[in-house]
Amino acid sequence: MTADARFWNKIAPKYAKSAIRDEDAYRYALERTRSYLKAEDNVLELGCGTGSTAIELARSVSKITATDLSEAMLEVGRERAWDAGARNVEFQCSSAGEAPKGPFDAVLAHNLLHLLPDLDAVLDGVAARLAPGGLFISKTPCLGEMRGSWKYRMFQVAIPLMRLARYAPSYVDFIDIRTLEAAVQRAGFDIIEAGNYPADTPGRYLVARRR
Questions:
Q1: What is the b/e burial string over 153-190, where b = at least 16 CB atoms within 10 angstroms of the residue's CB?
Q2: What is the DSSP string of 15-69?
Q3: Of 3, 19, 178, 204, which sits with the fewest C-beta atoms within 10 Å of its C-beta?
Q4: Using CB atoms within 10 A of its CB, is residue 23 exposed (0-12), middle (13-18) or buried (19+)?
Q5: Spatial separation of the C-alpha atoms in residues 159 and 164, rounded to whole Å
Q6: Domain ranges of the chain
Q7: End-to-end CA separation in angstroms for the chain
Q8: How far is it, in rounded angstroms, from Cα 130 to Cα 100?
């Protein structure tokens, strides 16, 4: 088991009880995502956590394979999916790089990309799991956009200290929007929608179509 898997397993009970930080931004991004999905779609979600997004979208698609490297997170997700009657959500324990091969009509990755040490490799893997014209939909905290602010300086100090105390994952990228979008395009995608939900971090929401 990796250090990150142990970290997310440890915090899973607390994470499951925590409220969404910006409910309005989450709901807006969720509905934008739903608008791109079709009833016959086979969808893959990377870094699904406790499955909230997969369960919300389940009625809009044929099947969702929801993956995460934390088995403890997935156990919460399975219980929630059962309670919600979302029988077309299948939970699998895997890292982003080891996720099922597909092919899929859409791949989702919400609040994940800034935690990946090799972003280019994962994005290449996403493209390989999609047929031409398939969609990659993501939302990423772009901490690099706050560069120069007191929040940025606080994060720069706090995150390494939290990592030492095992209160943060092993890698957090202070990525900015330009770098993120360039990486997505480099992997063979055309960005067809972009926005910041929430605006203050910002949480960069992207919809990209595989060429």
A1: eebeeebeeebeeeebbeebbbbbbeebbebbeebbbe
A2: HHHPPPS-HHHHHHHHHHHHHH--TT-EEEEES-TTSHHHHHHGGGSSEEEEEES
A3: 19
A4: exposed
A5: 9
A6: 3-143+172-210
A7: 36
A8: 11
CATH 3.40.50.150 is the classification of domain 3-143+172-210? yes
The answer to whether 50 and 76 are in contact (CB under 8 A) is yes
Q: Which residues pair with 91 in a beta bridge?
A: 66
Residues in the chain: 211
pLDDT in tens, the chain (211 residues): 898 999 999 999 999 999 898 999 999 999 999 999 999 999 999 999 999 999 999 999 999 999 999 999 999 999 999 999 999 999 999 999 999 998 999 999 999 999 999 999 999 999 999 989 999 999 999 999 988 888 888 888 888 878 877 888 999 999 999 999 999 999 999 999 999 999 988 999 999 999 9
Beta bridge partners of 42: 63
